[in-house]
Amino acid sequence: MKTALVVVPSSGLGTAARVAGAVAARLRESVDHLDHHVPTSPEDTDATLRALVDADVDAVVVVGGDGAAHAAVQACAQTNTALAIIPAGTGNDLARALGLPGDPVEAAAVVADALGEGVTRRMDLGRVEDGAWFATVLCAGFDSAVNERVNRMRWPRGRRRYDLAIVAQLALLKPARLVVRTEGETVELRANSVAVGNTPFYGGGIPVCPGADHTDGLFDVTIVGDAARLDLLRILPSVRTGAHVDHAAVTTLRAREVSLAVDGGWIGYADGERIRQLPLDVRCVPGALSVVGAG
């Protein structure tokens, strides 16, 4: 396979740069030729990825976090170029959904073996009506406010950053009137948050949409209603296991198309990246991305 390695050195506060050599060495054991690229900015990352896809490389291996993965999804969606993610960021939720080990070198071994055997598979993607793709979860409300706070934080690293942001954001909790329309029903209620999941995880492994399957052509939608702070504090521990969907304040849906509107000025985030203020219309596009993962 014609393979390119793209290392986003700032991912994981430098983790991607530190593991790049070991990842490249492992990949070279399984592929005949490996082009190595180290973009110097987000704009350079986007341009590099699009140039590689335009050059018809068979696979792009990205060493980075969910931001790098999101950029790669934009370039590789609905093309013949397969995407492999080596987790080297803070959240690593796409790599997790693809069944890859959390350790970058171990993940590189899995990817290398799959590339050596020419094994890829298709996964669904979500698409916002203005053309932006997402692979994991689109969220708004409390969840996206936490994302905004996380993106401003420089300490601590990993999951604890999300935990601290959640606690801080609870003090500012303000539910709003949310309208969720799907191809089959309309739900209108006062809510704290909504998550549209193509895969289960966001926020570094939180299964907000625990039943989401990126091969079934459907989103799983999780809505947290107008719960008080104390109720949310009781719900939060169960979010780590996915049991929150059984709480009386939580509504779940499954749909191919979802329209979100709110009277509270919520910001939509997808794959941990800021999209824009609601309203948003999204649809699931089956088999839109070729990926390299475990299993």
Automatic annotation (TrEMBL):
<keyword id="KW-0594">Phospholipid biosynthesis</keyword>
<dbReference type="InterPro" id="IPR005218">
    <property type="entry name" value="Diacylglycerol/lipid_kinase"/>
</dbReference>
<dbReference type="InterPro" id="IPR001206">
    <property type="entry name" value="Diacylglycerol_kinase_cat_dom"/>
</dbReference>
<dbReference type="InterPro" id="IPR017438">
    <property type="entry name" value="ATP-NAD_kinase_N"/>
</dbReference>
<protein>
    <submittedName>
        <fullName>Diacylglycerol kinase (ATP)</fullName>
    </submittedName>
</protein>
<dbReference type="InterPro" id="IPR016064">
    <property type="entry name" value="NAD/diacylglycerol_kinase_sf"/>
</dbReference>
<dbReference type="InterPro" id="IPR050187">
    <property type="entry name" value="Lipid_Phosphate_FormReg"/>
</dbReference>
<keyword id="KW-0443">Lipid metabolism</keyword>
<dbReference type="GO" id="GO:0005524">
    <property type="term" value="F:ATP binding"/>
</dbReference>
<keyword id="KW-0808">Transferase</keyword>
<keyword id="KW-0418">Kinase</keyword>
<dbReference type="Pfam" id="PF19279">
    <property type="entry name" value="YegS_C"/>
</dbReference>
<keyword id="KW-0067">ATP-binding</keyword>
<keyword id="KW-0479">Metal-binding</keyword>
<dbReference type="GO" id="GO:0005886">
    <property type="term" value="C:plasma membrane"/>
</dbReference>
<dbReference type="GO" id="GO:0046872">
    <property type="term" value="F:metal ion binding"/>
</dbReference>
<dbReference type="GO" id="GO:0004143">
    <property type="term" value="F:ATP-dependent diacylglycerol kinase activity"/>
</dbReference>
<keyword id="KW-0444">Lipid biosynthesis</keyword>
<keyword id="KW-0460">Magnesium</keyword>
<keyword id="KW-1208">Phospholipid metabolism</keyword>
<comment type="similarity">
    <text>Belongs to the diacylglycerol/lipid kinase family.</text>
</comment>
<feature type="domain" description="DAGKc">
    <location>
        <begin position="1"/>
        <end position="132"/>
    </location>
</feature>
<dbReference type="Pfam" id="PF00781">
    <property type="entry name" value="DAGK_cat"/>
</dbReference>
<dbReference type="InterPro" id="IPR045540">
    <property type="entry name" value="YegS/DAGK_C"/>
</dbReference>
<keyword id="KW-0547">Nucleotide-binding</keyword>
<dbReference type="GO" id="GO:0008654">
    <property type="term" value="P:phospholipid biosynthetic process"/>
</dbReference>
